[in-house]
Amino acid sequence: MNNKQTEKIKLWGIVQGVGFRPFVAKMAQKLSMVGEVLNIGGLVEITLTDEESRIDAFLNSLIANKPGPSEIVHVKREVIDYKEFDAFHIVSSGHGADEAAMIPADLAICPSCLEELYQEGNPREKHPFISCMICGPRYTIIDKIPYDRDNTTMIDFPMCEFCESEYTDIVNRRYHAQTISCHHCGPQLCWNSKVSGDTSLMDDKQILDKASEILRGGGVIAFKSVGGYNLVADPFNEEAVAKLREFKHRPSKPFAVMFRSLDEISSYCNVNEIESKLLTSSARPIILLEHKLNQIDTKDKYIGDLITSRFIGSFLPSFAAQYMLLDRISPLIFTSANTSDMPMIKDDDEMLEAFEKTDLIDGLIYNKRRILTRVDDSVVRVIDQQPQMIRRSKGYAPVPLFVDNEKADTLPQILATGSQLKNSFALTKGPFVYMSQYFGDMDTIENQNLYLENIERMKSLFRIQPTVIACDMHPLYFTSQFAAKCKDEGYRVIPVQHHHAHVCSVIAENNLKGPVIGVSFDGTGYGTDGNIWGGEFMVCRGADMERVSHLKYVNMIGGDTSMKDAAKSALSYIASYAKSTSSANEIDLDISDIIKFGRERLLAMPSATLTMKAIEAGINVIKSSSMGRLFDAVSSLLGICDYNQHEGKCAMMLEDAAAFAKAHPGEDPASDLALAFHDRIIDMILNQCEKIRESSNEDINQVALTGGTFQNKILMEGVLTKLRKRGFKPYYNISVSPNDGGIALGQAYAAMQQILTEY
Hints:
Blueprint: E1 4-14, H1 20-30, E2 34-40, E3 43-51, H2 52-65, E4 71-80, E5 88-90, H3 111-117, H4 161-167, E6 190-192, H5 204-216, E7 221-224, E8 229-233, H6 238-248, E9 257-258, H7 262-268, H8 273-279, E10 286-290, E11 311-315, H9 320-326, E12 332-336, H10 348-357, E13 363-366, E14 379-383, E15 386-391, E16 401-402, E17 414-416, E18 426-429, E19 432-435, H11 445-462, E20 468-472, H12 478-488, E21 492-496, H13 498-510, E22 516-526, E23 532-541, E24 544-551, E25 554-557, H14 566-578, E26 586-587, H15 592-603, H16 608-617, E27 621-624, H17 627-637, H18 649-663, H19 669-695, E28 702-706, H20 713-725, E29 729-732, H21 743-757
Parallel strand pairs: 2-5, 7-13, 9-11, 10-14, 17-20, 20-21, 22-28, 24-26, 28-29
Antiparallel strand pairs: 1-3, 1-4, 2-3, 6-13, 7-8, 8-12, 9-12, 10-11, 14-15, 16-19, 17-18, 18-19, 22-23, 23-24, 25-27
């Protein structure tokens, strides 16, 4: 009796561009299964004819042993009409129906390819673009789905006979590897400089030797990486660093440093097991690591002298050409090639034009592989023994997040426009939320145009046609004004309060059910009362938000200028505490000792008298409950930092001072007060959560901690410890950033919940 049946199995997840179809075919051959596999839209579809028990075993084995970079988020099985097969085949990809498409992020060079890169006699020895079916660029080079070579910029490089033989060999690890190439048929390194005759350098070794010579001499080179151009310099050379800062208009913000190996990173930084795994993962993010303050390199210089923080943004190379450069000189600053607040350069013509207009860049390494989507490096830190996203971009975007909701397939598709600062947007399709890469601040026309271009690109790539727009409530944000234009064109617009969106981002990615205490601390967000919020305690239930309490409103001088001028924030707090009154739901945090410490110095500043008079008269002031501005004010009052030369500098230096006091108690009054301030905030959070729990009939134990202020490691880990001791279950952002880069996820979730209440 024939007990065989034919099943169609659909797999959603990261199943394209990671060698999944070849892996399925090899497993089918191994288990003597017959059928076919193909990419259809953004998913993989497998058809098998066999006994049900054998199909079960095949699928279980597939899920358990899937290729390393792949991820399966959903499986659908159905029995279809019986079909005979003579073997197992990989069939040509189809465009597919209106299914949720998933494109893999760019994948760093794998260990096997890295080994071959240095293997004497290997056909791809020292090939700068070596890759296989589980590594290489993906999102940055894909034009449309499905992920096939003809739909990527690799179409510009026809395979040679050798590469094609491996590409078509089912037992080869480059079988159906869409980025396959070699010295004969793939992209090659190219060189440009202002030295006469220098452009004739065409050999990879000569190019890299010349570049390293320039770098050792204090020069700066532009280097075309996977997601765009980087500027590269020796972190120990003050002249080179000064050139970088001048070109980028970046006077003090720390630069990320690329190291040749994990061992080299460990010689400068403290690295735990989780951080090691992140550093060597296929995403290759920048990891914020505490540096060894007493570690001196062979040049008798502290790498920390050029970093301005106790953390070094550290990362490893992600593709072969970077390894080959660092073989010659390491470590190196690798930073995006752009001036401050402008988009990262991705196109060769644009980089060449910038190169020719400046004397600050001494050489240019490029290649002819087109970059379709510019993507900056991701930034991650480890908190509470877990990785947390600070900037979600290369290696992670555009992998979607799964929002568990049984009615998700009935919802309209949504565009969440994100925030004005650190922007990422999001598109939804069923239960999947596609987060874009990081765009930065939406203050320049160039970033605004890039943002709009990428919305259209992602809509086309994932076949999403949103009919609902979720946006911030701030009427002057570019993202909100864009939503208003969409409303005029017939789209439904759902505004979501900024801090509510922050909390919803935690609820969404942690799949929280029931009421949640939201603790949302950041620098600024437009409130429902028209004031500036930022030190918020709320209770969230689905689409509903109740603001329970908040930091006492302060008349903040200077509006948005106070975001940079921490001394103005400090003067605003001095004036506020001179007549301290607060309403029932305002938290009047006692910082009288800190004000006493810094009052005399602040009031002696040249502009202080005029500023205090303006505050007294209510001229150019705005009511603010911002925790971010409070951190700035305390940093200034303690004489630690008066001005944010880059965003968050004052708060970061305040945290560093607190860390110093932890290690060296009693050695510095300002540092001791900085630590005491952190402890005060931690206790205040605990007390407020306990008040909310006690006053609620629901015994709310779930707490969502979010907002840019919670990027402070001392604050976050201290709060988590105390909340857990008191029986709370604290949650926080992991897959998206707690800063405004994660706002779009929260907006999308809040809009989903709002629509569900109407069903």
